[in-house]
Design a protein that fits this description.
This protein has 450 residues and is α/β, with parallel strands linked by helices. The chain has four domains: 115 residues, Rossmann fold; 166 residues, 3-Layer(aba) Sandwich (Rossmann fold); 69 residues, Helicase, Ruva Protein, domain 3, CATH 1.10.8; 61 residues, Arc Repressor Mutant, subunit A.
Length: 450
């Protein structure tokens, strides 16, 4: 944006001069302030496209500037400049609404990338309007409206986001919508299932390698960070990462640099991190399975995706949209009233993913133009009283094992004993399911009954 006005707030004259000259070379017009009060005065008199503020100022700190802009100028992106190693300040600024942050000494390459991203931010949609792509979140229930509003807000930031929710509830869809609405929408969106990568290949897959770095490295290879350059890296099931990889990921996020296997030099990376998990990572931190410092870097802002059980009023509309997509041209099937009622009453342990599977199966079974209850083949066993009574008198460990065993066997039966699919239904990794099967001694029950 030629001649765009940028507010620079720093109490060091040489930093103001460096930033100002860089912005002028980019075709921008810098306005400089050395204090919070001076910055607020300029904000009241001018219209800016971006604000860059230091965290430590003579009459306060940069958080005051960030909070004022977030409250009074919601369309204005503001980035903070922090002292080297002040990760806590950067996280605090992101939490109150900063677009991004830069560490000192300021890298001019990172500064230019940040400015270009900030100036590409779309306008804030008016109240009641939804941006492009929001129609993919089908439904009008209050929990879904809350999710939409938060996605709009998160799209205007570079802050790391952690999306939490049960398996199959749309965590990747939410991440894609944040990306599509953000300044990075023209860049790549790279989705990674952290639980599906062999541990010995993780570093190469994330950071890349040079030809000859190890046996089998027959050519240079870009990692996920390089592939997502200028865009968004979505780390699904981030709780599955081993501790050794968590250390390396933390450094890459903090330094915004990675080192390929087989090289000594680090290269800058420009990616936004969005992660997702069905686990409670705070509990994983307490147990020592997940690093606390990485948790705080990933969980700057949390987005919780509701389960389908919380969106029952949206199920008929969502089911209709899925059927329209799955039916294809020339075969428009609809649900009978009884089938809609049965779906609305079903508990959906696999959430939207399970709804898609149920409807796909029903399409294959339906003979007319309407899908009935029998076509859905719902197997809704929600702890009948007789089964609950069987475990009522057991000691707690045995009772928990009985519940766990039944949940695993139900998921296996529902997925025709496909353990990968059963793990998704249960919301755990394939490795975790295999471990539980072995611990509970139910291997002999894995074959489907004749």
């Amino acid at each position: 944006m030629a001649n765009g006005q940028v507010l620079v707030v720093d109490d060091e004259a040489d930093i103001r001069e460096l930033l100002g000259m860089t912005l002028i070379r980019m075709g921008l017009e810098p306005f400089c302030a050395s204090s919070v009060s001076e910055a607020l005065e300029l904000l009241g008199r001018n219209s800016f496209q971006l604000c860059l503020t230091d965290m430590r100022l003579a009459d306060g700190d940069g958080l005051a500037v960030v909070e004022h802009i977030t409250r009074n100028h919601p369309s204005l992106p503001v980035a903070v400049i922090t002292a080297h190693g002040s990760a806590e300040n950067a996280v605090a600024a992101l939490k109150v609404g900063a677009f991004d942050y830069l560490g000192k000494p300021v890298s001019l390459d990172q500064l230019r990338a940040l400015v270009r991203s900030a100036l590409k931010l779309p306008a804030v949609p008016e109240r009641g309007q939804s941006g492009d792509g929001s129609a993919q979140l089908i439904g009008e229930s209050p929990p879904l409206q809350t999710v939409r509003q938060l996605i709009e807000k998160l799209a205007r930031s570079q802050a790391p986001v952690q999306i939490r929710g049960e398996s199959g509830c749309g965590k990747e869809l939410a991440a894609r919508l944040i990306h599509q609405k953000s300044a990075r929408r023209d860049g790549p969106f790279v989705a990674v299932n952290c639980g599906a990568i062999p541990e010995n290949l993780m570093e190469s897959e994330f950071f890349g390698h040079r030809k000859g770095a190890f046996t089998g490295a027959v050519a240079d290879h870009d990692g996920f960070f390089q592939a997502a350059s200028g865009g968004t890296l979505f780390l699904d099931e981030v709780g599955e990462l081993p501790l050794s990889m968590q250390v390396k990921l933390l450094r890459a996020i903090q330094e915004k640099r990675v080192r390929r296997i087989g090289t000594t030099a680090e290269e800058p990376v420009d990616v936004r991190i969005i992660s997702a998990t069905h686990r409670h990572l705070a509990d994983e931190v307490k147990s020592g399975a997940f690093r606390q410092d990485l948790y705080y870097r990933l969980n700057v802002i949390e987005l919780r995706m509701p389960s389908l059980r919380e969106l029952r009023e949206d199920i008929p509309r969502l089911a209709g949209a899925i059927l329209e997509r799955q039916s294809g041209a020339g075969r428009a099937l609809r649900l009978s009233g009884a089938a809609e009622a049965a779906l609305a009453d079903y508990h959906f342990p696999g959430n939207v993913r399970e709804l898609e599977n149920i409807l796909e199966r029903a399409l294959a079974l339906a003979s007319g133009s309407e899908i009935g209850v029998d076509d859905l083949q719902l197997d809704d066993e929600r702890a009948p009283a007789a089964e609950a009574a069987e475990v009522e008198g057991l000691p707690l460990p045995e009772r928990l094992e009985a519940v766990e065993r039944k949940a695993i066997l139900d998921a296996l039966e529902r997925t025709r004993y496909n353990q990968t699919a059963a793990a998704k239904v249960l919301g755990i990794s394939f490795r975790a399911l295999r471990y539980r099967i072995q611990r509970l001694g139910i291997r002999q029950e894995l074959e489907p009954k004749a």
